[in-house]
Amino acid sequence: MQVVDLFRHTAGLTYGFQLRTNVDEAYRREKIGEIEKAGTLESMIQALGKLPLEFSPGDAWNYSVATDVVGRLIEVVSGQPLDRFLEERILG
Fold first, then answer.
1. Going by C-beta distance under 8 Å and a sequence separation of 6 or more, which residues neighbour residue 92?
2. Residue range 47-76, pLDDT digits in tens
3. Is the pLDDT assigned to residue 38 strictly greater than 80?
4. Contact (Cβ atoms closer than 8 angstroms) between residue 27 and residue 19
5. Which residue among 21, 50, 66, 86 is the one 20 to 30 A from 13 at the CA level?
6. What is the distance between the alpha carbons of residues 56 and 12, in angstroms, rounded to a whole number?
7. Which long-range contacts (CB under 8 A, 24 or more apart) does 36-45 make?
């Protein structure tokens, strides 16, 4: 999986609400990407890493939690929580 796959939604990720496949079901079971679930981007990505991909990166297109993964990538690279990074570097 490459960063460009995250931006293009070709990373092999999905959303649980799509109700199409066993992978979607696994997202629902683990509450991946659900607002009601308490946690951080870090904990979400840790849980996501335990689930299979919907397809091999680059092979197909599917809206997904890829933008959430990009948010976590920003946190890791910047060393800041996403909200602080956005406020200081983009919005402030």
1. none
2. 999 999 999 999 999 999 999 999 999 999
3. no
4. no
5. 86
6. 6
7. 41/68, 41/71, 41/72, 41/75, 41/82, 42/72, 42/75, 44/68, 44/72, 45/69, 45/72
Which single residue is written with the structure tokens 């909200």? 83
CA-to-CA distance for 23 and 29, rounded, in angstroms? 10
Residue that the structure tokens 């092979």 belong to: 59
- Say yes or no to pLDDT of 37 above 80: no
pLDDT band at residue 30 under the 50/70/90 scheme: very high
